[in-house]
Amino acid sequence: MVYRYVPLLRAKAGEANALFSLTPAAKDRMFPILHLATSVTATFIARVGAAWTGRRLGLDGLFNFDATGSGADLQTTYNGLTALGVTVVPCVEYGAPAGYMQVVGALAQAAGNGLVVKVRLGHLQAVVGWLAGGGWQPQNVDLVVVAGHIAEFGPGVLDQLVLHSMQNLPQAQDWRSVTLAGSAAPKDMSNLGLGLNLVPRLDWQLWQATHAQVGYQLDYGDYGIAHPDMTEPPPYVMGNATVSVRYTVANEWLVIKGRPVSGNNGIQMPVQYLGHAQTLSGHAAFGGLVGCWGDGRIQQIVANTGTPGSRQTWVEIGANRHLTLVADRLP
Q1: pLDDT for 90-100, tens place per residue?
Q2: How far, in Å, CA of 220 to CA of 208, rounded?
Q3: CB-hemisphere CA count at 13 Å for 49?
Q4: Are 218 and 180 in contact (CB under 8 A)?
Q5: DSSP class of residue 289?
Q6: Out of the domains of life, which is the source (predicted)?
Q7: If you ran DSSP here, which 8-state letter would residue 183 be given?
Q8: Sign of the alpha-carbon torsion through 231, 218, 147, 122
């Protein structure tokens, strides 16, 4: 059985560049779902279009809709990506407001690509009836079951609950696809110590404990190296933020917590990012992937053939490494 990887990503420049820099083999394993932030740029649409021409992705505009009260950004992004040759499948969440459902329903009906539907564990038994109320059947739906932020519960705590829920999924064989998605990456660095931290990939561990026992193909989804909370921190918070990086290995993230760039203990950003690159490249778990752009970029920084970069650069590096590793390690 060949499983599909469904990364749930923010629709931002770093993630777009990470997708663009993937190898074709890695892209072939993926069905990304992009979540629109409070605004969408033409540059983002063009970059994703260049990265994903001839391929399928999901598009979730609920956060943007809640923030703006309008489906205009969702429509613009949908139209722009479609014009660039991307097959876009609109995404809804169980219980989404009627206004958002109207926008998504119109897009889905016009294109005929079906829907992506996200649902929490507690609503699994109701999702078929809810969809039928809108005229949708499981055969036209990619179902994404969201298990939540696993790190809040700890290792193994949700395993039996999730397994029982997935074994009792209504019409399990009828869905176009079924994915178990969760998150475990930290929201910020506040609970981590200065320097190198090992953070377990509990979302990956949950899927490994579940997928072989459900009796149908259960694909894997996660939120990459990010927390699912889409809320942007205020500018003063980012101004005092540490210069930190995240690097995905087999069962953990290597998270290096740096210092702010200002204050009594502040260190300039390029100096810190160079040090982080040196630490990662010297770690026993570094590398090991064919064609990983993120690893190559780190090696360039260490060799002084590439600049240490910015916060966005390191989102690109971290996301590309994560996406490449999952695509490579997924059965």
Answers
A1: 999 999 999 99
A2: 9
A3: 15
A4: yes
A5: -
A6: Bacteria
A7: E
A8: positive
Backbone angles phi, psi at 192, to 5 degrees: -110, 155
**Residue keyed to tokens 């110590």:** 193
Phi and psi, residue 165, nearest 5°: -65, -45
Helix (H) or strand (E) holding 218: none
- Helix (H, G, I), strand (E, B), or coil: what is residue 298? helix
Give the H or E element holding residue 57.
strand 56-60
Residue ranges making up the domain that contains 192: 5-329
The CATH number covering residue 236 comes to 3.20.20
Does an H or E element contain 263, and which?
A: none
- CA of residue 284 relative to chain centroid, distance: 26
Sequence-distant (≥ 6) Cβ neighbours of residue 296 within 8 angstroms: none
Rounded CA-CA distance 214/223 in Å is 22
pTM above 0.85, yes or no: yes
Contact (Cβ atoms closer than 8 angstroms) between residue 206 and residue 222:
no
Q: Are 279 and 208 in contact (CB under 8 A)?
A: no
Q: Give, in degrees to the nearest 5, the angle at Cα 70 between 67 and 73.
A: 90
Contact 259, 244 (CB under 8 A): no
Q: What type of residue sits at position 227?
A: H
Task: Quote the number of domains for the chain.
Answer: 1
- Closest alpha carbon to 256 in 301, 195, 319, 308: 195
